[in-house]
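Example protein
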Amino acid sequence: MSLEINATKSASRPQVISPQDVVRKLRFDYTYASKESTDRMLDGLSELLDHFRKPRVHVTAFLQDAAKLIHKHLRIKEVSIGVRSPSDGMYRYLVMAGMREFVWSEHKSLSYTKEDFGDFTKWGGFTISELTRLFLFEEKPYLESEKGTFDAQMGLRMKRKTPDAYIEGDYLDVYIQGRNKEFVGWIETGGTWDGKLPDAQAIKWMEFLSSILAVALMDWDGR
């Protein structure tokens, strides 16, 4: 009888999902993700590449369309793209898709150095691939100056019930590398429209997009 009671208690006890569970699943899925392309993404990429057929690529408009592509076709709720400013070498958010205006204003007020992106002691995070790093709310991956970029109280109220569940405050950075792997910018995303973390297929698409964005950013003069 006691065994049955213990088994019932064990079955009813809510499963605790740790950050390591989340990272383990995403790394596994990333390694074995399907390599099949989708018509939806290919159509979106064709439209994006139209920018290169123009006499001059307007980089800000190009990046804006890239953010919209990720938001719409990868079904990611909030997307932002940051770049290195040619004027002072600082890194700032430049375009976004899906963000509320007051949240975006908080992002636009921030600036970073190149060294910031290599200093994982500040933000922590978990390496998914050479280009992608995952930051989870439980690990507190924010500086005091970044607290306005998300709803911390909502994050505290949410519970991660599955390894692919999204909690307010989670985010992914996909790095944009130029010549000789020089860091020229990054794609940053929150969760998907259905309350999950971006899956491995979405990450691979964003990494592919980052290589296209790098071409436009390598010789960008700020215009």
